[in-house]
């Protein structure tokens, strides 16, 4: 019989899970702001265009846009290296969002519940979701069980890398100050589509 969820997940696990998901959200907002700056577009427009993409999709979109806009190679490489850090933890983020968790060995570790209950012949795709089955490479370093220390270290790594990344983007002027409240255009707000009467 399976252990109830409360037996393996402590409040600290949930706090660290939430922190990891929030750091990914911050990275996504930062990528959105860079895409908007590079494309000369509104950040909200970029949000609408990329909302169907997961983290890796947004990362690829940003890198493709940087290539298209001919950003200097050293800047491109540095941005790519900053984004490799959260990319390393993308599988963990996905497991947090889409898996239940069970105890693992040693007893203070936890792992996603799907690991021990997989149908025969099915294995998790642990890297590029768009890769074909022929190109599937199972990564030996893929981690499937985590201690509280591992999760805490992940949060610290994501946070430190984010601050360095944001500082670098400011240094090369791809982002500026955090925007303030939205200013109303002269003449008031534009009418919403629902407010426009059709003849």
Characterization of this structure:
By secondary structure, the chain is mainly alpha-helical. It has one domain. 52% of the residues lie in helices and 4% in strands. It is built from seven helices and two strands. The chain has helices at 5-8, 11-39, 43-50, 55-68, 73-88, 90-98, 148-171; strands at 101-104, 109-112. A two-stranded antiparallel ribbon has the order 1-2. β1 (101-104) and β2 (109-112) form a beta hairpin. α2 packs across α3 (43-50), α2 packs parallel to α7 (148-171) and α4 (55-68) runs antiparallel to α5. The longest helix has 29 residues, at 11-39.
How would a crystallographer describe the biggest sheet? Answer: 2 strands, antiparallel
Count of the domains? 1
What is the CA-atom radius of gyration, in angstroms? 21 Å
Q: Classify the helix fraction into a percent range.
A: 40-55%
Strand order of the largest sheet: 1-2
Could you give the distance between the termini? 65 Å
Compute the average pLDDT. 78
Would you list the SSEs in sequence order as H and E? HHHHHHEEH
What's the total count of β strands? Answer: 2
Helices and strands, with pairings:
Layout: H1 5-8, H2 11-39, H3 43-50, H4 55-68, H5 73-88, H6 90-98, E1 101-104, E2 109-112, H7 148-171
Antiparallel strand pairs: 1-2
Brief summary:
With 199 residues, the chain is mainly α.
Fill in the keyword field for this structure.
single chain; 199 residues; mainly alpha; two-stranded antiparallel ribbon; 4% strand; disordered C terminus
């Amino acid at each position: 019989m399976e252990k109830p969820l409360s037996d393996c997940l402590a409040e600290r696990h949930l706090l660290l899970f939430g922190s990891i998901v929030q750091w990914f959200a911050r990275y996504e907002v930062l990528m959105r702001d860079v895409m908007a700056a590079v494309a000369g577009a509104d950040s909200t427009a970029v949000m609408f265009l990329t909302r169907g993409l997961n983290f890796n999709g947004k990362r690829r979109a940003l890198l493709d846009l940087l290539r298209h806009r001919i950003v200097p190679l050293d800047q491109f490489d540095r941005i790519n290296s900053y984004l490799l850090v959260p990319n390393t933890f993308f599988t963990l983020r996905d497991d947090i969002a889409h898996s239940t968790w069970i105890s693992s060995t040693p007893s203070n570790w936890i792992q996603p519940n799907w690991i021990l209950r997989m149908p025969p012949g099915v294995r998790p795709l642990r890297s590029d979701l768009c890769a074909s089955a022929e190109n599937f490479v199972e990564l030996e370093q893929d981690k499937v069980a985590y201690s509280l220390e591992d999760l805490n270290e992940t949060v610290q790594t994501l946070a430190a890398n984010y601050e360095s990344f944001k500082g670098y983007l400011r240094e090369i002027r791809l982002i500026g100050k955090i925007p303030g409240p939205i200013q109303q255009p002269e003449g008031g707000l534009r009418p919403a589509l629902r407010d426009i009467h059709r003849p």
